Each structure stands twice: as C-alpha cells, then as structure tokens.
Amino acid sequence: MTFHVSRLALASALAITAGIGAAQAAGTEITVAMQLEPPHLDPTSAAAQAIDSVVYANIFEGLTRFMDDGSIAPALAKSWNISEDGLTYTFMLNDGVTFHDGTAMDAEDVKFSLDRARAEDSTNAQKALFASIASVDVVDPTTVRITLSEPNGSMLFNLAWGDAVIVAPESIETITTNPVGTGPYTFTNWVQGDKIELTANPDYWGAAPAIQNATFKFISDPTAAFAAMMAEDIDVFTGYPAPENVPQFEADPRFQVLNVATEGETILSTNNKMAPLDNVKVRAAIAHAIDRQAIIDGAMFGMGTPIGTHFAPHHPDYVDLTGNSAYDPEMSKKLLAEAGFPDGFKTTLKLPPPSYARRGGEIIAAQLRAVGIETEISNLEWAQWLEQVFRGKDYGLTIVSHTEPFDIGIYARPDYYFQYDNPAFQELYAELNRTTDAAKRSEQLASLQTMISEDYVNGYLFQLATPTIAKAGVQGLWKNAPTAATDLAAMSWAD
How far is CA 357 from CA 351, 361, 461, in A? Predict the structure, then answer.
C-alpha cells in the first residue's frame, strides 16, 4: 500500500511538472495536422501539394512569394527592375542569406535553381512556368538577371510558386529526405507515416519567428482526425478531412474554424487520349451524368462552389459555365448512343487518398452507372497516384483537386496527365502571356475558360473549400490559400 501511494504521489508530481512545462512551451511550440503525408520533401520535382504544405516559406524560399491574400511579395529578392520591353528582370538579393548547412546563398544558387528547373531533363512538375526564360545570368553575388524570349506578364507570379524555390547544388543529392533551404525553419526529423519536425533557424536572415518548434502530424482517417482535435492533441488541422464535424467545432469555445478559400478546382480528370474518352461526345455524356450538388452535399457536407471550367470562382475573370454541363442523364444517354455506345462502356476510376476523392468517387460511380458507364474503382495511396496517374497516364478517370494558383495554363501542355492537345488553346494561352492590357487579358481568359468547357476536357465539379480547425489561441493562420502552404513564421499564440 505504501508503494502504491508513493507511485500516486510521484505521478501527481510528474503531472504537475509536465503541465508547467507544457504551459511554458505552449508559446513557442505548435503541432499541425494534415491528412496527406508528402511523398518526399523536394518541391521542385513533384506535384504533391503536401510537399509545399510542409516546406513552402518554412524550409524553402523563392525570389518572390505568395501572401495569404494572393499578393506577390519580395522574398530572397528584396527588389527588382523590369525593362521597358518586358524582357529583362533584374533581381537584387538580400544580403547575408545562408542555407541551413551554413553555405552562402548567392546569385550562383539562383542561376543553378532556375537552370535546373527549366533544363531539358528537368523533373519539375511546373516546368512550363519557366519556358519563356531564355537565360539566367549572374551580374554579381547579389544581383541576378533573367532574360525572357518573349514578355510574360506572369513572371513574378510564376517565381512565387513552390516549384521555383532556390536550392543549393551542395545539398541537391539528398533534398528529398534532408531538405536544406534558406527559410526560417530547418528540417529536424521525419518519422515516416507519423510526423515531420522542424526547428526555428537561429541564423535566419529575416525576422525571427515566434514558433520555435513545429511538428507536422499525418492523420489520414477522418474519425482519428476528429478524436485528435477533440482531445486537443493537435493545435491546428489544415484541410480538416471531415466537414460533417465542423458545426461541432464551431459550437465549442476551445476551437476556431476558418473556412479557407482555396485555389482547388476539384475535377473528374479525364484521359483525353484513351478510347473512348478521346471522343468529345463521350466526355460530354460524362459531364451531363454528374450531379455536382449531390457530390458537394454527399462528399463535402455542403462545402464547395460548383464550377463549369478550370478557374476559381473568386477570381474577377471567372465565367460561370456550369450550364454547359448541367445534370441531364437523358442527354447523357443520348450522347453515348450518338458516340456509338448505346449500352455504355467500362473504364477505370483511380482515387487518391483525400476524402473528397474517395467519398466523391463513390457518388460519381453511381451517377455514371445510372447512364451505363461502369467504373472499376481503385483506391491509391498518394505515391501510387503520382506514379500511375500523374506520371504514367495509366487511367481513364480520376478525381483530384488542382490547388495550384491560376493554373489554366496546364491545358496548353499536351503532355500533361489528362493529355488535352488543342493548338487553338495553346496559341491563345501564349497570346495571353504576351498581353499586358487588363481588358484584353479578361477577354482572353473568358475564351480559354469557354474552350475547355465546350471541349469537356474534364468533369468540372466544385471549388474546394477546406476547413482549418485550430485551438482558439492560435494567431496568424492564413484565411485564404492562394497556394498550398502552412506559414509557420506567421503564427503565434495569444498571450
């Protein structure tokens, strides 16, 4: 009995000590949960948004960066000049910037990074962003000159992407598992399947962040996500995967809920070169078989805005084209018969892990079945999806949310995974890049949106709205998501 009482006393003392320690650490530590774990940590060689969610503006930085309102701000470049003809961009770099391994970051690293991104053998998922760059030249250690082959009004925007961050040749061989950047946080540890840990960079060139230690936890199961938040094991859950729980968090004073507007066009991606999906009437039949609102209600519990093209509804140049692909099963059957498939056909539906894809996939499969289209569903892990669908193009249909900002340009890339090859679209998009007049650009963007809508390139479902659930005391969370990011340096705890 004496031993038992001693153990209780010791446990109580430890609990009190741990409570004090936790209270002291609360102001400098944070645990952020995400549903998806990155396949690796190099944002310059993969399309997985989970990579940027961990590393963007934390480990890696570019010449410019996105702020949460979508504006472009200086980052490693403190200022720049643009020539009158729009062909020469001269960037002045911040002084005294070092990589996490202690080596200096200078103009040579900028040249290396951009030349690597645009090289012929580049594996950069957004290589097209750099297509108009003719040369990158070192003027002096803190000055870089980028010369374009033609004007590109989006260049500062393009350089803010995670795919354009500055990396060092000295650490490039191990960048996927031991990322070395210039950002306010250094990579500390990765327990595969569980967590990634970052620590504040004591030699950071910019302002010191309030959060000193950050842990990214990966919780794929919506039920487990709810349990972890309710138990307060997690401080922030970005892209919370169970929207049905949101009202419960909104009613609980321990938490805050942010319905974050994203750039995520959620689409039924279609392999435009795989028969019979290479037939526009078949693609139109698929589009008319889809009841968008049923998917939003069933998979997202009402969260999401219907879209009829690949463009964000909050963008001022958005055109509402949902009427082009209104839910009309009888029209769908008619189009299938006209295309030579009166009894329908069978194709694959390969689904990545996010709940919008898995839940939405079951609903879409049932909607397609109602018009005679049978789908063979495969649930893939993220790495499998990247290998089979994104890189291998071995699929008929898939569901994914394209979270890259202002990314209608992917339709000008015939080798992109849905393999849409329309020279008229490609020429108009090239013309858009050469245009600086705002009114003319608006006209061109309307035409581009209409073109892909009328070609039924993909099934356009909804704009993703992702709830962020956080403890009430967390400050500095992004209210919008112009790119995939978890800006740790912007966060702090309320006093």
Answer: 6, 6, 11
Does 209 sit behind a cis peptide bond, omega within 30 degrees of 0 on the bond before it? Answer: no
Which of 119, 142, 174 lies at the terminal end of a domain, its last residue? 174
CATH code (residue 426): 3.10.105.10
* Whole-angstrom distance, CA of residue 196 vs CA of residue 186: 11
Q: How far apart are CA 118 and CA 334, in angstroms?
A: 46
pLDDT in tens, 219-245: 999 999 999 999 999 999 999 988 889
283 and 403 co-located in one domain: yes
Q: Do 138 and 279 belong to one domain?
A: no
Check: CB of residue 93 under 8 Å from CB of residue 142.
Answer: yes
Residue 39 DSSP label: S
456 and 470 inside one domain = no
CA distance 481 to 465: 10
Residue 23 has pLDDT above 80, yes or no: no
CATH of residue 103: 3.90.76.10
Determine the Cα–Cα distance for residues 450 and 317; give it in Å rounded to an integer. 12
Q: If you write DSSP's letter for every residue of 298-312 in order, what string do you get?
A: HHHTT-SEE-SSSS-
Residues 115 and 164 in one domain: yes
Domain that holds residue 163: 59-174
The reported pLDDT for the residue numbered 242 is 87
**Which has the minimum average pLDDT: 6-10, 153-157, 294-298, 431-435?**
6-10
Nearest-angstrom CA–CA distance, 263 and 312: 6
Token readout for 113 is 């990074």
Q: Are 74 and 64 in contact (CB under 8 A)?
A: yes
pLDDT at 3 over 70: no
Residue with tokens 């035409």: 447
